[in-house]
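Co-fold these.
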Amino acid sequence: EPEVTQTPSHQVTQMGQEVILRCVPISNHLYFYWYRQILGQKVEFLVSFYNNEISEKSEIFDDQFSVERPDGSNFTLKIRSTKLEDSAMYFCASSTNRGYTEAFFGQGTRLTVV
Amino acid sequence: ELKVEQNPLFLSMQEGKNYTIYCNYSTTSDRLYWYRQDPGKSLESLFVLLSNGAVKQEGRLMASLDTKARLSTLHITAAVHDLSATYFCAVDARGSQGNLIFGKGTKLSVKP
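Predicted complex below.
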């Protein structure tokens, strides 16, 4: 069964460092998303991406964040200068249609900023 | 701003019992989703509800949507331990690009 895969599963980084989280969405999907979940809290939308550009972003997704689809398969989230409060589980998701079918989530990358 | 409220946030039930989780949302939406999350794991899609009056069932779980009341329910029938997990509802706000606004989740614990 096709699935969304994310790497790494766990990333530890020092405050101020740049991190890149990687995702391979399901191959025939067109819409891509990043969400984050701070430990014990709800899942929060960060950004959606379609046709090689950001289609929507939340207040959380400030200038420190960027997304890219560098080739036909990968979808990345970059945090330029990490802060302690960026520590969270980051989920990538993809869907075939915007909002009419479910989004399939990857297993997540746990980011720990120390 | 779209808000999604779930209750209860914590639910401890005995095996064999029935219970309902409620999901209210604050603005117009025709699309509601239920996800399950096991500890430390990803979000597994359970149901997609796309219209008023939609009802879907899978095993011991049944979800329904009332768009006029802005309410969805997830009903658990004859709970078993394997259903222990956190259940999230999420709403796709009308006019959005498909981003989901999640409730805080209901942590369900089913005890023998």
